[in-house]
Amino acid sequence: MGHMEFDYVIVGGGSAGCVLAARLSEDPNTSVCLVEAGGGGRDIFIRAPALVATMVSGRPKINNWAFQTEPQPELNGRRGFQPRGKTLGGSSAINAMLYVRGHKADYDEWAALGCDGWDWASVLPYFRRSERFAGGADALHGDAGPLQVGPQSAPRKISHAFLEACESLQIRKTDDFNGDRQEGAGFYHVTQFQGGPQKGERCSAAAAYLFPAMRRPNLTVLTRALTEKVLLEDGRATGVQIKRRGRREVLKARREVILSAGAFGSPQLLMLSGIGPAAELTAQGIPVLHDAPGVGQNLQDHLDYVLSYRSRRRDVVGLNPRGLARLGKAGLRWRKTGQGLFASPMAEGGAFLRSDPGLDRPDLQIHFVIGIVDEHMRKLHLSDGYSCHICVLRPESTGHVGLQSANPTAPPRIDPAFLSDRRDLEALMRGARIMEQIMEADALTPWRGGQLYAHDGSDAALEADIRARADTIYHPVGTCRMGADPASVVDIEARVRGVDGLRVVDASIMPKLIGGNTNAPTMMMAEKVADLIQPGLRPQQS
Description:
The model has no long low-confidence stretch (mean pLDDT about 95). The longest helix is centred in the C-terminal third of the chain and has 18 residues. By secondary structure, the chain is α/β, with parallel strands linked by helices. The strands form six sheets. Strands 1, 2, 9, 10, 11, 12 and 23 form a seven-stranded mixed beta sheet that branches. The chain is globular, with a radius of gyration of 22 Å.
């Protein structure tokens, strides 16, 4: 078993890992190794935004772990589907490219929960540092960061009609969900190359941060390498054991091991390494090196309910021969110009709404999609169509991640416990009623064909439909919770409690799920922790 030695070993080349590898390797005297179980993250499925549809279903498994949940009692015992990126770029390589930070009060809430230095005023500079915003710099946006962010080049007519439908219901328009006012309806900003030879391509965390940094001699990136466990000596993380090309290797870390394997991968890896709830480890025959009951707990995710419609107009996505021919033409246009349907995030329009006017911030989010998305594209419909999704932003239900096996190749045991708190169902039903009104508004009449899964409209029928079809919209967080209390898994600098030389930096450390998509916040967190690890290396943005 050979071994290599570095200052930092980062496990997981996703949104956080790419940022950390790039930032820590800015110091030429620091050696960094990034280990990724998936591939290189440069293929056409990732670069062409529209081809996300081929990856998200996990059939076949292209750049996707394609996890399943435990049977969910409140969802008729169904197993949910949990796609996660398995490639450099992680889930930023297989998502809808939406750049959403959440509500500023979400971060003030983190601080109130004991995470000093994670309030909105403290995290905003890191959002700005990461961003190269097409609209230029201002008090909220940055224009010098690696991550290219901007408005979509040309949302479809139906997406404009969606905004008109919202306006007819007194949901006012907002030009920037990351601006002064999140609430309202608008078009999402996207993580997409805005110009140059890559114009129109997805700007994943790897494309933004990692690929440019890979030219540095002090950064080593290993792909198709599965990390099996963190190695501990006398209460300190000294490296990791990986399996690559059929052989086991040891990567030694002189300074730190950093886990950025995501809300499912990071707690799983801690447990495989003997760090976690004693009963969970003992059940799998894993020696308990550090009893940490919080590892894997506090799983929170956005449960999504979708309405789908056939379209009478053909300017949407369909999987019939005509629709596929249109897609083929759009692909050629995208290759030449970086524009058109192939550049679309598909989820073009959206809204942030309150289910109750007494709330201090929106608790519902809508994604309006220019095609039929049924069961994560696992159930295909030939019709031209469109769909609208709604989720509850701050669910009360919390689940957990555990082990199915001590074998590192086995998937983790994922139980989001969706709708285990009745309040989530009630808020989702209120949101569904608002979404139904939007979908029935006059502005969408020219497109509106038959509705898939139509029901009699009663509360009982709506509840039954939610239980029969709702599932994740891909925002799992919280399983290695950050906090100041002894029960938290990591402290406010993301250091694992009770183990030296070990951090976790990814969506798993969020103490509470934010009100929005989780990709931009995950990159922000990695920017901030990189600063904590190497203070003074990067000048603070004003």
